[in-house]
Automatic annotation (TrEMBL):
This is tRNA (guanine-N(1)-)-methyltransferase. Homodimer. Residues 1-226 form the tRNA methyltransferase TRMD/TRM10-type domain. Specifically methylates guanosine-37 in various tRNAs. One of its GO terms (molecular function) is tRNA (guanine(37)-N1)-methyltransferase activity. Its EC number is 2.1.1.228. GO terms for cellular component: cytosol. It catalyses: guanosine(37) in tRNA + S-adenosyl-L-methionine = N(1)-methylguanosine(37) in tRNA + S-adenosyl-L-homocysteine + H(+). Keywords: Cytoplasm, Methyltransferase, S-adenosyl-L-methionine, Transferase, tRNA processing. S-adenosyl-L-methionine binds at G113, I133, G134, D135, Y136, V137, L138. CDD domains: TrmD-like (cd18080).
């Protein structure tokens, strides 16, 4: 899978993503991450990419042409249709289901805005998806693009060392993950739950399921409405 990022801050996204597990996946060739500097497509002699908003008001607006030319350079390179995601607090809030949908694509283009926004005309022409990462305001789209790429890339086969782990985790069925323990068996007088040392796989699975449901009820009761719980579970946990 190929991630293409249109930005004024290439180093920020590339430095941030080319480390850790995502960086390993890039090294392995399972995914690629390319950043295009929108400023390189400015036709202005000072490489300016923003100007005053028509109608007045605070701040500057990113101009249409450099954004469009940067987009064209990517479109020409990949030679097929690709979704263009504009990171904006005015977008649909990103979630795991959207990550799973985006992970099916071969190429994704991320457009990171700055200043007070981007000229609406180029957005109308190229953007297919308006996405936010939550109800708060950031200075630009780079961190949101990095958040989305991390969440999407880890769903691509071969990115995680462990193929099954992406399927059995928080949110795939609207339940939070069960608690985890590792050595030592006793740490500062606190013991690992006996069932996990029993070697009884059936009991371990049952305990983990209970913990998932309990933990979701306690920490994210809003998720439980969407979770598929058995009649017994609903009764047992008073849901
Ligand atoms: Cl996608 N962009 C900006 N600038 N702020 C945000 C956001 C995006 N999502 C939440 N806050």
């Amino acid at each position: 899978m190929n991630f293409h990022i249109m930005t004024l801050f290439k180093e920020m996204v590339l430095d941030g993503l080319n480390t850790s597990i995502i960086g390993k996946a890039v090294e392995k060739g399972v995914i690629t991450i390319d950043a295009v500097d929108i400023r390189e497509y400015s036709t202005n002699k000072h490489k300016k990419v923003d100007d005053y908003p028509y109608g007045g008001g605070a701040g500057m607006v990113m101009q249409a042409e450099p954004v469009y030319a940067a987009y064209q350079s990517i479109a020409d390179k990949i030679g097929q249709k690709a979704r263009v995601i504009y990171l904006t607090p005015q977008g649909q809030t990103f979630n795991q289901k959207m990550a799973e949908e985006f992970a099916k694509e071969e190429d994704l283009i991320f457009l990171c805005g700055h200043y007070e926004g981007i000229d609406e005309r180029v957005l109308d022409k190229i953007v297919t998806d308006y996405v936010s990462i939550g109800d708060y305001v950031l200075t630009g789209g780079e961190l949101p693009a990095m958040v989305m790429i991390d969440a999407i890339a880890r769903l691509v086969p071969g990115v995680l060392n462990n193929d099954v782990s992406a399927e059995f985790e928080s949110f795939h069925d609207n339940l939070l993950e069960y608690p985890q323990y590792s050595r030592p068996e006793t740490w500062r007088d606190e013991k690992v739950p006996d069932v996990l040392l029993s070697g009884h796989h059936g009991n371990v699975a049952k305990w983990r399921r209970e913990q998932s449901v309990l933990r979701t009820a306690e920490r994210r009761p809003d998720l439980l409405e969407k979770a598929e719980l058995s009649v017994e579970e609903r009764k047992r946990f008073n849901l």
